[in-house]
Amino acid sequence: MPVVHSLDDLRSLMADWRKSRCSIGLVPTMGYLHEGHVSLIDRAAADNDRVVVSVFVNPTQFGAGEDLEAYPKDLPRDVALAARHGAAAVFAPAPEDMYPAGYSTYVNVEGVSAELCGRSRPIHFRGVATVCTKLFLLTGADRAYFGEKDAQQLAVIRRLVADLAIPVQIVGCPIVREADGLAKSSRNVYLTAEERAAAPILHRALEEAREKIQAGERDARTIIAFLEDRISAEPLAEIDYIQAVHRDTIVPIDRLEGPILVALAVRFGKARLIDNFSLDL
Ligand SMILES: Nc1ncnc2c1ncn2[C@@H]1O[C@H](COP(=O)(O)OP(=O)(O)OP(=O)(O)O)[C@@H](O)[C@H]1O
Ligand SMILES: CC(C)(CO)[C@@H](O)C(=O)[O-]
Ligand code: BAL
């Protein structure tokens, strides 16, 4: 399976695939692949003739003081895993090829980027939208696969391709979890043993909140206060945000009605973990 580093090599490989009338699935990742990524690759391989997995720790989505340098990497392992799950190529560009000297063009998806992670990571979604636009244009993919763990990212990408009329179908894939409910994340490696043992509180609390809503609770503040109480009782947890929003527009809501997303970000030591659930009410 080819590992492509340059933009020109990627373009010519995609042109070959197109010439053979193959449909193309794209799975954008930052590498250090786990079962969450694998579920996206499996789905892409089931839906498309060819799958390209991108592995790129995108510098423009990291703010000052975030973990850009520390982000875990293991390209040989990623390549082997992607190949085993049916990928036909891995695209692993260098930052200076994606952002050469003089680079000045960014994609800003307004509104949907503002709340949740946008509050504490103000430039994050500009970087995500920019790199994803570039990946969509470079690959000409028919479909691109994103995890529901990053629910706001999924909403940003859906808005982006609708607004810019990019002809790629965006496919959302369910959250893959550890046996104790913790959402799989490359950043889980930052957790100490004590923090790892405490982190499943996020999923437990979200499940309890979901049950309350399913039992009829419709006041968003009640649900958020419940989650704040449950999570702040864990001494290792430091809440970044807990919010209830409309799932597509990411606008905060007071009443839990329609397509809702209840999402949180919580720090455990060096790891900032995100999780969520969504319901159609
Ligand atoms: N547990 C998971 N279940 C489903 N999809 C996931 C999961 N974790 C990541 N993904 C998806 O994989 C894609 C690439 O994500 P990324 O490489 O940032 O992995 P990550 O584990 O989420 O990393 P981090 O948590 O450190 O940001 C994204 O679309 C993301 O939503
Ligand atoms: C979509 C993405 C690969 C863009 O860098 C990243 O934000 C991620 O891994 O979710
Ligand atoms: N999965 C989102 C990538 C990031 O946190 O930068």
TrEMBL record:
Residues annotated to bind beta-alanine: 61
Annotated residues for binding of (R)-pantoate: 61, 153
Pathway(s) served: Cofactor biosynthesis; (R)-pantothenate biosynthesis; (R)-pantothenate from (R)-pantoate and beta-alanine: step 1/1
Main location group: cytoplasm
Subcellular location, record wording: Cytoplasm
Catalytic residues in the record: 37 (proton donor)
Misc note: The reaction proceeds by a bi uni uni bi ping pong mechanism.
PANTHER family reported in the protein's UniProt record: CYTIDYLATE KINASE/PANTOATE-BETA-ALANINE LIGASE, PANTOATE--BETA-ALANINE LIGASE
Family according to the record: Belongs to the pantothenate synthetase family.
Entry protein name: Pantothenate synthetase
Species in which this protein is naturally found: Peptococcus simiae
